[in-house]
Amino acid sequence: MTAGIPVVAVFDIGKTNKKFLLFDRKYEVVYESNIQFEEQKDDDGEPCENLAELTAWMKGTMDDVLFDERFHVRALNFSAYGASFVHLDKRGIPATPLYSYLKDYPEDLLDEFYSKYGSQETIALQTASPPLGMLNSGLQLYWLKHRKPELFKKVKCCLHLPQYCSYVITNKSFSEMTSIGCHTALWNFRKKDYHTWVFQENLSKHFPPVTHTDSKLDIPLGKYKFLAGAGIHDTSAALLPYLMQMKEPFLLLSTDTWSITLNPFNEEPLSADELNKDCLTYISPQGRPVKAARLFLGNEHSHYEKKIARYFAKEARYHKAVKFDKTLVQKLLLENNTRKKFLPETMQVDGYLSYNKHKAVDLSLFSSYEEAYHQLNIDLVTMQAMAIETAIGASPVRKICISGSFCDHLIFIKLLASRFPGIEVYTASLSNVSALGAALVMHKSWNTDETGKLFELNLFAPERDIAMMQYELV
């Protein structure tokens, strides 16, 4: 066993894909496996995580790797999605299903909660958590206590999912700040303690002690010993590689179905205006506030791209073959035709824009798929720029790093660089970023090497003579 490659192991638990990865001293992936579990039904008959299969898979996977002579596991950590609690009974066994954050929250219970503890805006500002129902995982506890009281009586300990993953292997219970501070409505950011409502509902007794993100446990497992972490929220984990490599203030634009703009250099308290723009605050692995602005931009792109493809009789994903056309962009910006503009149809942007939601783009005005797709990107970039400007605030950010699926959307990136000519815009090719972040949390405990360069950055210069800064959507 000890003759194998020294590695740090990471369980990276996503909503769909569950991964297990081994990183060597240079943080290259030397082993990876992934699995998906079919959802089961909770006690309301609604879909939920298959907790039993997840737990069994983690234990079996850990046993297998410890006996694999190719590797020597020196450290272990866990990255997982948030807004999810595992409730343990007095025996340390899950007492409830792992309820999905996609469940509807009863409106009458929300009204009751806010009538007792303050308005939506007050609670949201104090906890840096927009009102999101079940996505405010603290309110899941309120729901469980008041709507399933007999079940709640069985609950001894409540663990955020990343910390439950750690518990599965270590049998140790902790709370941890990146999970507590992630739009849970539990943490009062100004007082740096659980919110008053948590104490008044007598819920704090169900939370184990708060530990630092980089805390380590010396864990014996059979005849082997290694250091294990307490687990980390996946969004905060994804930020860590950039914090370790970037030497100047930066903003991370994480793109996929959701576009999340993360600014670890804006520590101003969340304002009412920012709250109205769907901003929130995460906690960095170092325990500092991270201002974030969210847009459902990837979904909006997919929604409109399909409409354009249907209208012009193109195959799905035809947009990947469309090249950036500067002349076409200049023409569209000069026209500034309101009937050609792609106003938001699937995402809420009321905090940014006031517009007629019944006014649809007229695709017949475009001469080609290419023209329509360039206009779509002009409008998406304009929407994204609003979120970026909000997240930047008064912070000294002069670099934007784009990660995720939009790194392949060169039209979008070139237009974004032109929208912010005074800020350097980069793409970063970095896979398994949440798992890498969780591995890096453990760095000093097992790896004496320097982390070195973790990823490559590609700089995109702004296009000259493109007046993106002057363009307005409405």
TrEMBL record:
The keyword Secreted does not apply. InterPro entries: ATPase_NBD (IPR043129), FGGY_C_2 (IPR049382), FGGY_Carb_Kinase (IPR050406), FGGY_N (IPR018484). Gene3D superfamilies: 3.30.420.40. Residues 248-444 form the Carbohydrate kinase FGGY C-terminal domain. The keyword Transferase applies. Pfam families: FGGY_C_2, FGGY_N. GO terms for biological process: carbohydrate metabolic process. GO terms for molecular function: kinase activity. It comes from the Bacteria. Keywords: Kinase, Transferase. Residues 8-215 form the Carbohydrate kinase FGGY N-terminal domain. Belongs to the FGGY kinase family. This is Carbohydrate kinase. It comes from Rhodocytophaga rosea.
